Amino acid sequence: MTSSKGTVAILCAGGPAPGINTVVGALSKSFLNDGWRVLGINYGFKTIFTDKPDTVEMDHLLADRIFTVGGSFLKMSRHKPKDAEFKPDFFVRNDIRLLVTVGGDDTASTANRLTKWLADQRVQVRNIHVPKTIDNDLPLPGRLPTFGYRSAQNEGTRIAMTVYEDARTSGNWFVVSMMGREAGHLAWGIGNACHYPVIIIPEMFTKVEITFDRMIRMMVGAIVKRKLLGMNYGAIAVSEGVFHFMTDDEIRSCGVQFTFDDHGHPELGNVSKAHIFNALLGAKLKELGISVKSRPVEIGYEIRCNTPIAFDLEYCTALGVGVKRLYEQGATGCIVVVGEDGTVKPLYLKDIAGSDGKVRTRMVDITTDDFRMLFDAMHSLKPADHAAAKKYLPDPENYDLAKILGW
Predict the structure, then answer these.
(1) CA neighbor of 26 nearest in space, from 338, 323, 347
(2) What pLDDT digit, counting tens, does each position of 366-391 carry?
(3) Which of 162, 179, 275, 370 has the largest CB neighbor count within 10 A?
(4) So what's the architecture of 156-304+367-405 in CATH?
(5) Cα separation of 20 and 67, whole Å?
(6) How does pLDDT run across 9-54, given as a tens digit for each residue?
(7) Domain 7-147+308-352 has CATH 2.40.320.10
(8) Domain residue ranges in the chain
(9) Which residues make Cβ contacts (< 8 Å) with residue 24, sequence separation at least 6?
């Protein structure tokens, strides 16, 4: 199939997030309506430089069928090609005028490298990137979320609320580890939506090192505080991001038999973080003689491919259509952003990258009023609780949240 206007190619890379199909469907409809050919590429950058690129011809029927569905119709890949792999054949043969990438910062930078290389080969292809991550850790303007985050938070909240109800019903505690890479957005957002009595995210540790000992004492302090309130149940949310700021020696100290990568670092993706915390918490409670049962729960992969909620359906539609608006304005090498005021703007990688050229990670802002209010509302031991807490702890002051964090 050919078009006098040329072809728009779309690929998705990295991990899935709710709303990918909405972006692809909305973008396809927008360009198809204007007489363009739209070609979907399977497996990210993995096949487009081979003799048989894996592609899908997008039409109105297909675009309409997928736009409300979770997951990604276009198969994804984390393959990051080197410049030596680049070939112009696919782009020339299909008359590609625009390459649209859906993914994280690595995908965006790869697309930039590729289109600059193509330009050196006298093949003019523009590229526009749609930022995707459930982790909400890309530095978009203001507090604008990354697409997929709200849907992931919504599904994570559904799961976490069921866990909390189980705790209340059974009189147990649950340690819930939550996905999020370095940042604590998902753990903070889900934990607060469910009124979890304690939430642990890496951003809290501004004055002290992140250690297992400190985090376990935070958990024990919350358990004792709840006992003082007559509540013998609860749930603890912990962001997996804490592991990104711990030393390898500290991680090894937990006693888990890790596998290691080529650089000697523990391969955290091969173990359940919730099980690590739950085992350490159980050992500490036994040492203190506190009778509490706790169970581990992991929330992560379950929230990447769920059906997008209305927020992301609308947001991702605007992002998909916004790509066409930016293309018509002559933009290239940019990220499409739809601001809180509805304005479509290009955001360039150089504007959000650090001095090393890497895109900065957006962490949870702990200086805001809403963070401080929600933090203060958590169940934690305070000086006024110390006397009563001696029923359970020989040294309650060492389980005081403010003291643990050095605040």
Answers:
(1) 323
(2) 999 999 999 999 999 999 999 999 99
(3) 179
(4) 3-Layer(aba) Sandwich (3.40)
(5) 8
(6) 999 998 999 999 999 999 999 999 999 999 999 999 999 999 999 9
(7) no
(8) 7-147+308-352, 156-304+367-405
(9) 10, 12, 40, 58, 63, 66, 67, 72, 73, 74, 102, 320
